[in-house]
């Protein structure tokens, strides 16, 4: 069962910024959907 959970998370698509579409570096404590570049605008 644990292997299925691990495979699920391995197969998730990359997180992308909703404004510019760039791939985001995921952080476990962050649920934001915009990258640092777009947040600072």
UniProtKB/TrEMBL annotation:
InterPro entries for this protein: YhfH-like (IPR025432)
Domain of life of the native organism: Bacteria
Protein name: YhfH family protein
